Amino acid sequence: MSKAITNAMTVDVEDYFQVSAFAKHYPHSRWDSQPLRVEKNTQRLLSLFNKHQIKATFFTLSWVAERCPNLIKEIVAQGHELASHGHWHQRVSELSPQEFKQDLYRSKSILEQVSGVEVMGYRAPSFSIGDENFWAFEIIRELGFRYSSSTYPIKHDHYGVPQWPRFSYQVIDELIEIPVTTLKRYCKTWPIAGGGYFRLAPYQLSRWALKQFHLQEQRAAVFYVHPWELDPQQPRTCGVGYKTRFRHYLNLDKVEQRLGCLLTDFNWSTMKNVYQTDLQLIK
After folding, report:
1. Cα–Cα distance between 141 and 174 in angstroms, integer?
2. Cβ-count burial of 42 within 10 angstroms (0-12 exposed, 13-18 middle, 19+ buried)?
3. Most exposed residue of 13, 207, 255, 269, measured as fewest CB within 10 angstroms of its CB?
4. What is the DSSP string of 24-55?
5. What is the pLDDT along the chain (283 residues), one digit of tens a residue?
6. 237 and 25 in contact (C-beta within 8 Å)?
7. CATH number assigned to the domain with residue range 2-281, chosen from the 4 options 3.20.20.370, 3.90.1170.40, 1.10.10.920, 3.40.366.10
8. 73: Cα separation from own chain's centroid
9. Do 247 and 21 form a contact (C-beta atoms < 8 A)?
10. Cβ contacts of residue 1 below 8 Å, gap of 6+?
11. Rounded distance, CA 109 to CA 111, Å?
12. Residues in CB range of 270: below 8 A, 6 or more apart
């Protein structure tokens, strides 16, 4: 059954110093002085996807696109989908509507100018859209996006809207929301969609969880990974707490091999391809 279902593989294209957990250590004024590793690490992902002959959706910071335009052009040239991850990787929950609109407009404009293709998808940094900033969906639609993948229906200390839908749905007119994947088990909702959870747990558990999801739901899964997760040699950030160090650095040396297994064990494509029917039905 798992091989019969095509899932959505997604990449959040950001560098190690741009993750939300490090925001206090790397203010925007310091970004240009950090060694840029995102291009090389994203190239590793492109090579891995090419080896397994799969296409993915790259939710990309336009800050990265400005500095690595050839990388953006290569993503598109290889047949992958380009989507937006904002410009400054700021949590939407920390922005006013006007600030969010400015950031998102800037992101879409830069990505489309650099790539020459329409950008129709958006993912909020740290899945930071919820009950308190539902207004963000109106702005996403207003700026011409057709889908968002900005929610994670789990309980987490930094994000999550546990009571929200677990599957794609029309969140407002002309816009669908596609949450990342969770598994219902033992009366709880478990995160199985990638990120830190993919690094923390043994690969066999991730594979089992995705197979269980397919058996239960008969639906496509949405998985995500970051380029910095394939980079165990990245500079270590001083002054961060134990929990953040543990979450960020654990098993970075195992991700590339695990991801290769994941690409072999399941079928994958872009968000646009997997949710083509949903996108055609929105009003």
Report:
1. 7
2. buried
3. 207
4. TTS-GGGGGGSPP-HHHHHHHHHHHHHHHT--
5. 467 899 999 999 999 999 998 999 999 999 999 999 999 999 999 999 999 999 999 999 999 999 999 999 999 999 999 999 999 999 999 999 999 999 999 999 999 999 999 999 999 999 999 999 999 999 999 999 999 999 999 876 566 688 899 999 999 999 999 999 999 988 889 999 998 889 999 999 999 999 999 999 999 999 999 999 999 999 999 888 888 888 898 999 999 999 999 999 999 999 999 999 999 887 6
6. yes
7. 3.20.20.370
8. 19
9. yes
10. 211, 214, 215, 218
11. 6
12. 8, 9, 55, 56, 57, 80, 81
Distance CA 87, CA 206 (A): 31
Q: Please state the φ and ψ torsions of residue 17, each to the nearest 5 degrees.
A: -85, 0
Cα(first)–Cα(last) distance of the chain, in Å?
32
What are the structural domain ranges in the chain? 2-281
| Lookup: tokens for 105 | 């407009």
What's the CA gap between 40 and 283, in Å, rounded? 40
**What is the pTM assigned to this prediction?**
0.96
Beta carbons within 8 Å of 246's beta carbon, 6+ residues apart: none
CB atoms within 10 A of CB 67: 15
